[in-house]
Hints:
Layout lengths: L3 E4 L6 E4 L5 E5 L2 H7 L4 E7 L3 E4 L3 E6 L5 E6 L6 E5 L1 H6 L1 E5 L13 E3 L15 E2 L4
Parallel strand pairs: 3-10, 10-11
Antiparallel strand pairs: 1-2, 2-5, 3-4, 4-9, 6-7, 7-8, 8-9
Amino acid sequence: xxxxxxxxxxxxxxxxxxxxxxxxxxCHCRNCQKQAGSALSVVAVFARPALTLTGTTxxxxxxxxxxxxxxxxxxxxxxxxxxxxxxxxKEQGIIFIKAGTLDDVSDxxxxxxxxxxxxxxWFTIPEGAAAFHRE
Length: 135
């Protein structure tokens, strides 16, 4: 097991993860696109107990297509999205870290793409990656 670190753009929110992510995935849903300000959101899945978070964050409560709450945690100073959480993720003991906030992303390789039905038409899903039209 390795230790990973990360944080927001301005550095006022920092975290440590005492684990490697069992999965790195890409979400193409419209809400993730809007929240990321990009064509997609890349998230690394971690065991919830591995996360130690410092600094002040703010949470925006969103709703997924299923109607389930989606808690989008961000830095109130610089606006960087840091993590995403859901009641289902809590039950499963996992947390979703916005992969771009990790200090070292060199070994991350997304293996699954979700909500490809709303992916930007110019984006090509890499060969070999699992693709799911919806969640």
